[in-house]
Records
---
Amino acid sequence: MKKFIVILLSFVAFATAANAQKKVLYKNTVRFLNTELDGSETLRVTGFGRNRDDAQEQAMKNAVYVVIFEGVKDGNKGGQRRPLIEETNAREKYAEYFDIFFMDKGEYLKYVTLQDKRFRSNNKDKTKLGKAYEMTVRVLRSQLKERLKQDKVLH
C-alpha cells in the first residue's frame, strides 16, 4: 500500500510540474531583447487573435503602442526603456490621430518589421476564443519618433 501511495504522489508531482512549465500566452506582453545601431529595438511580443494573422497584427500593434506610450519594462538590460511620449493621457488627448494610426493595416506597419524573426521561433497557444502568438519584432524607434514630431504629436 505504501508503494502505491508513493507512486501515486510522485505521479501527481510530476504531472503538476510538467503542467506548470507550459507557457501561457493569453496576456499581451512585450519584452526588450536588443537595440540595433540604427536606433531600432528588437522586442519579443505576444499578440492574441482569432487566427494567426490577427494575432501577428495585434502583436505588432502592441509593440508600437508600448514603445510610444508605456516604454518597455521587461527583458534584457539596456535600450530605450522610456516611452516616446511621456505626456500624461497622450493617448486620449490625441485619440483621433492614434485611432487612425493604429487601424488595421494602418500607418503603424511602417514602423515595425518581422526582420529579426527566426524560423520556428514563434510560440503559439490555442484557446476556445482564438490563438496567441509570441514573436520577435523590430520597432523602428527613431523613424517613429521623427514621424510623431512631424505630425506635431511629440514636441
---
Amino acid sequence: MVKEEVLLVFNKSRKAYLPEYLCGIFLLFVLGFVYSQGIYLNQYVVLFIVGISLFSVGSAEMSRMMNKYIITQSKLLIIKGLIKQHKKNVYFYSLGFVPDINIHQGRIQRLLNYGSISFSGAGADSFVIKDINRPKQMIERLEDMIHQNRKSTHKDRES
C-alpha cells in the first residue's frame, strides 16, 4: 500500500462559530466590568458565568475538531468524529463525473469569506464540505486537481 503525500489539511472555519466566541468573550467582559465597578458577586454566580463562557468557546472548538478534510494527490478524505470516526474517500477521478459543484454562502458568510462547497451528482456522489475559509479558492484548487487527475488517468489508459 503506497502512502500518498498530504497536500492540505483543513477544518471548519472559526468564522462559522463567531456567535459562540463572541458570547463567551462578552460574558467574561461583563464579569470583568462588574468587578471593576466594585460589585462582588456570589462565588457560584461567578463560576456559572465562567462555566457558560468556557462551554461556549469549548463547544465551538470541539465541533471544529469533529470535521477534518485532507487533500492528497488523488483524493479528498472527509473525516467526521473524534473517537468514533467516519471516513469517506472521494477520488478526484470519480469527481470528474459529478455534474454540479457549487458554493453556498449567506450574506454574513460572503462578508467574512467562508462558506460551503456542495458536490451533487447521481446517487452516492453527493456530499458537502461545510464552513470552510475561502471557498472560491478551494473550489478552484479542487477543480484543478480533478482536471489533473483526469489527464493522468487518460494518459495511463492510452499507454
